[in-house]
Amino acid sequence: MRLLLLEDSYQDYLRALEGLDTSFDITGADDPEQLVTVAAQCPVWLGQPDLIARLLGQGLKPLWVQSTWAGIRPLLATELPQDYLLTRAVGVFGQLMSEYMLGYLLAHERQLFERAQKQADRQWDTRTPGSLLGRRVLIVGAGDIGQDVAHFLAPFGVELHGVARSPRALPDFLEVHGLADLNRQASMADYLINLLPDTSHTRDLYTLDLFRQMKPSALFINAGRGTAVVDTDLVAALEQKCIAGAVLDVFREEPLPAEHPFWSVPGLIMTSHTAAVSSPVHIARLFIENLSRYRKGQTLKGQVDFKQGY
């Protein structure tokens, strides 16, 4: 079988794949233009959605695409074909995302950033820090990654609630509510973690009205998609102290423009879409497992429903 590999980190993925399986012929690069002439001879593609979309846009189409990202938004463009098998990266980001969330939850409770500033100002800070024990954590997006985060946080004694498209019972969560109940659940949360994908149902969810219903002591963390947040509303919420702070890893436009108000609004911490970066070794293992399923005609992990967008 001939595999098309299209990745910015092409050499890293090539080494990872060759270390696991040598039963297929890999053709690849980090530039789609270099692969136009050979892509039609490759029934299976592995790579990042933005680069793969450029080949699809030229009329080329595989039988199966394995994305190296959890998000597959570039492949959902209406002008691109959707009559092929698409799988997204699943089961490989849970540990990294959980560590990211835990780091900022603990930093908020232990007042680490404020204490660092006090030290810089030579001020002795005797405030009593908080604890995660008993804190109500709302995970909005109780899918693959959300469930991993919940499992990771559970031993810290937090009260875990979730939000998904519809109510359901899931391990580690006391309750998982429907998306229609988001505002009410947000009003009771000490921490609101957004992990939703980008779909027509998940855009512009976080408005000033929602932030005004939250506790003034609450922390908002978004590592799902930037389109879920109305940027101007979050800025207003922080300026009005509707919430204690926000941590953002994802944005509507990346890199974030230098003139964007997020750079200077008080109470906002930004990371540059690095909360859970794809690992070539982990993605290669997922691909090899899915390849075995593909050859046997079985359902693949992370199989995308184009109508739902994930």
TrEMBL record:
InterPro entries: D-isomer_DH_NAD-bd (IPR006140), NAD(P)-bd_dom_sf (IPR036291)
Keywords: NAD, Oxidoreductase
Lineage: superkingdom: Bacteria
Pfam families, A to Z: 2-Hacid_dh_C
Keyword Oxidoreductase listed: yes
Signal peptide: none
Domain D-isomer specific 2-hydroxyacid dehydrogenase NAD-binding: 103-275
The UniProt record lists the keyword Membrane: no
PANTHER family named in the record: 2-HACID_DH_C DOMAIN-CONTAINING PROTEIN, D-ISOMER SPECIFIC 2-HYDROXYACID DEHYDROGENASE NAD-BINDING DOMAIN-CONTAINING PROTEIN
Designated name of the protein: 2-hydroxyacid dehydrogenase
